[in-house]
Each structure stands twice: as structure tokens, then as C-alpha cells.
Amino acid sequence: MYDFAIIGGGPTGYAAAMYAGRLNLKTIIFTGAPGGLIITTDFVDNYPGFKHISGYDLFSNVQEHARSYEITEISAEATSVRSNDRGAFIIQTKKDSHETKTVLFATGASHRKITVPGAAEFENKGIHYCALCDGFAYKGKIVAIVGGADSAAKESLELAQNAEIVYILCRGSALRGEPVNVTRVHQNKKIKLVTNINPVKIIGKERVEGVELDRPYEGSAILKVQGIFVAIGHIPQSELSLQLGVLRNEKKEIVINRFTETNVHGVYAAGDVSDTPFKQMIIGCAEGVMAAYRAYEHLAKAI
Ligand SMILES: Cc1cc2nc3c(=O)[nH]c(=O)nc-3n(C[C@H](O)[C@H](O)[C@H](O)COP(=O)(O)OP(=O)(O)OC[C@H]3O[C@@H](n4cnc5c(N)ncnc54)[C@H](O)[C@@H]3O)c2cc1C
Hints:
23% helix, 6 helices, single chain, FAD/NAD(P)-binding domain-containing protein, 17 strands, 2 domains, elongated, alpha/beta, seven-stranded mixed β-sheet, FAD/NAD(P)-binding domain, binds flavin-adenine dinucleotide
């Protein structure tokens, strides 16, 4: 039986695994597709100890650090989790199942999809959710970002490295992001911020050719673009936790206390799936470490 099972192979999960390894907890991590959201960003300038590093490299450092301890990695998704009559938990994948004394949900979040007409039809045919993954295809082209927070700011800077013009279509009256990123956006001559505007329809034949707006911009309600990148937030991947009766809030985030404990004894949550308001890698890593330590204390008391 494992002491500590982590569901989620993003930075939060691997930070928890690193610390659990140090605490000699018999640890298993179910990674799904490892890396999480941080590997979709080109640069991270706000992680203490690294002035400037790519999201991929930063994640790989955390993963490598965790791997320097004895942990078991399962490169599959956890498909179910239930408690058993031994007071433990059974985590199942499509292939096998594993028993554990404690569980950490570090399942993160997925991109919130845009739902205007045409958006689903043109997904990957001009509608994208990751500038780092798909932005290179728009070298010398005109693109738009839908969104108004820090992710939209960062995605626009990434796209501006290749695209000729990047419109940010922001529904609010200003771009809300880290001030340093907002300043970079305003200083970038390729980026045009358009505020108080919403897309209402995606237009095209085979691929995206434009977007219809809810008010005219520069004399037209149709903005001609070849690509549209969506950065309108994320949805917590918390469904699995319901199988254990874990409490979620109205945003479907898992409710935790300051020790990352959920309402279910021996079950923790950390990172973007939790109800902590500031979704950043440093917060997820810290919460992951707290969960590992809390599980360690819980198990020590149970002995
Ligand atoms: C464009 C962009 C830029 C960003 N820039 C920054 C930045 O500069 N600085 C910063 O600190 N943060 C940044 N962030 C936020 C940061 O990426 C997240 O806060 C961080 O990735 C959260 O990590 P996590 O491990 O909690 O969740 P995630 O990164 O979402 O990872 C969750 C992991 O769990 C796995 N998973 C899900 N369900 C299961 C399952 N059932 N079984 C097994 N595995 C599962 C997923 O495959 C994934 O690997 C940015 C985010 C975006 C989108």
C-alpha cells in the first residue's frame, strides 16, 4: 500500500512528489499528460530563483527534482477513486488499481472554450488555445486573442514574435494582467488592444477568416484575422473528487483549508484545482508541498 497518492502530473503534483519523497512517504503519482498548463507558456519571469525561464524548462526542473527521490510514476489518468473498508483509498486507471492511505488532487484546470457560433467548428482550423503550441503557424499573419487577463497579455506577447498584427479583444475597459506584462503589451507596436468588445461569431469557409464583433471597430463589425487564440480562463478538473464526497465551490474548485485539507479525512487538494484565488505555479508548488507534509503528519499520528 502507498502512503501518498498524487493525481496530476503538473508542477503542483511533482512538487508534492518531491517533498513526499524527502519525507520517505511511499509515493505514487498518476500523471495523465504530464506538464500541465505551465508548459504552454514561453516564458516565466515570476518564479523565485529564476529571473527568466521557459515554462517547459521550469516544469522539467521540478519533475527532475522529484525523480531524484524514490517515487512511482504512472503515466496514465486516474479514472476512479473510492474508499475501502480498510480506511484506505483505491485509485484506478484503465489498466490497474493501487491502494493508498492518503490522496492529493493536483488535477489542475483545462482551457475554458469559447462558445460563440463557429468556434467549435473551426477548432484547430484557426481557433486555438495555446500560442506557444500553435502560434508559429501564423508567421506574418493577422491574429486575435480573446481575453483580458494575464494569460491573454502573455499569449499576445508570444504571438507577436511571429504574427504581423495581434489584436487583443478584451470585454472589459482595460487589460488586467501583471503590470509588467501589461506594460510590455502597450510597448509592443504589433499588438493592438481593443477594449469593451466581444466576439459574437467566427467567420470562415475551410478555416477562420474573421470574427464578427458586437460593435464596430475601425468602421466595421467584421475583423479580418487568420487565427484566433482564446484565453478566457480555465475550468477546474475536479470531477473525480466527487467520487469521495469532496466539497467543491460554485466554480467547481475543491474547497481546502490553509493546510490543503479537504472535508474528507486524508484527502488533500492543491494548485489550480483548489479554491485558492491566485492561480500561479509558485502557489501550486507551495500547496503541493504543504499537502505532502500534512499527509506525513496525518500518517505519523495514525501510527
Ligand atoms: C498561458 C499561461 C501562462 C501562464 N504563465 C504563468 C507564469 O508566468 N507564472 C506562473 O506562476 N504561472 C503561470 N501560469 C499558471 C500556471 O500554468 C498554473 O498555475 C500551473 O500550471 C498550475 O499547476 P497545476 O499542477 O496545479 O495544474 P495543471 O498545470 O493544470 O496540471 C494538472 C495536471 O494534472 C493532469 N491530470 C488531470 N486530470 C488527471 C487525472 N484524472 N489523472 C491523472 N492526471 C490528471 C493533467 O494532465 C496535468 O498534467 C500560466 C498559465 C497559462 C495558461
